[in-house]
Design brief:
Blueprint (H helix, E strand, L loop, with lengths): L5 E2 L18 H16 L4 E3 L9 E4 L14 H7 L4 E11 L3 E6 L9 E6 L1 E7 L5 E7 H14 L10 H17 L1 H7 E2 L1
Parallel strand pairs: 1-9
Antiparallel strand pairs: 2-3, 3-4, 4-7, 5-6, 7-8
The chain binds nickel (II) ion.
The site of nickel (II) ion has 5 residues, from helix 3.
């Protein structure tokens, strides 16, 4: 297990459609463990493999972790506390989504410091392989539905800013550049440009 650097946008790996996983072996499970640790360390509620420059269809999610200790320097104990309900998704596929929409103010570990309201289906059903390669189906609503859709977007080369108008998207990318300049320590610690 390792904490991996997170790619900041814009970068070609974040634009690529990621490849499906055809064999779930120890190498893939080690990658998933490292992704989970990286996500808790960041901290974030979801992370997709392209964000750590691995263009494969894997994502990790935990929307149940406590968020009040975001500013605590992450040590092993803090990370352990954040680990409430880790979920691993391999080759996820949305098989149903509700017509009813939901708006949520989204952020992204590849767009640090940036947030915007994004409208997505309120409920979804998703089919995927779990950590052990077993086929699973999950019906999700609320934050879990938002997060799963956001992470599946990453596997398809889509960022949350791609759901905004081009004006807002360009503005967010300019604000991100400024944020990167103003937070060199954060970048050195957790990200790659
Ligand atoms: Ni993201």
């Amino acid at each position: 297990m390792a904490i991996l650097p997170i790619q900041i946008a814009p970068h070609p790996v974040l634009k690529r459609v990621a490849d499906p996983v055809d064999k779930i072996d120890d190498k893939i499970r080690t990658l998933m463990d490292s992704m989970l640790e990286t996500m808790y360390n960041a901290p974030g509620i979801g992370l997709a493999a392209p964000q750590i420059r691995e263009s494969v269809r894997i994502m990790v999610v935990d929307v149940d972790q406590p968020r009040e200790d975001d500013d605590v320097p992450p040590d092993a104990a803090t990370i352990a506390k954040r680990r409430v309900k880790p979920r691993f998704f391999i080759n996820p596929e949305i098989i149903w989504s509700s017509e009813e929409p939901n708006v949520y103010e989204e952020g992204c570990l590849s767009l640090p410091g940036q947030y915007a309201e994004v409208e997505r289906p309120k409920k979804i059903r998703v089919k995927y392989l779990d950590y052990d390669g077993q086929l699973q189906e999950l019906e999700a609503s609320g934050l879990l539905a938002t997060c799963v859709q956001h992470e599946i977007d990453h596997l398809n080369g889509i960022l949350f800013i791609d759901h905004l108008s081009s004006l807002k998207r360009d503005m967010t990318l300019r604000k991100l550049k400024k944020w990167v300049k103003e937070n060199p320590d954060e970048i050195a610690e957790k990200h790659i440009l």
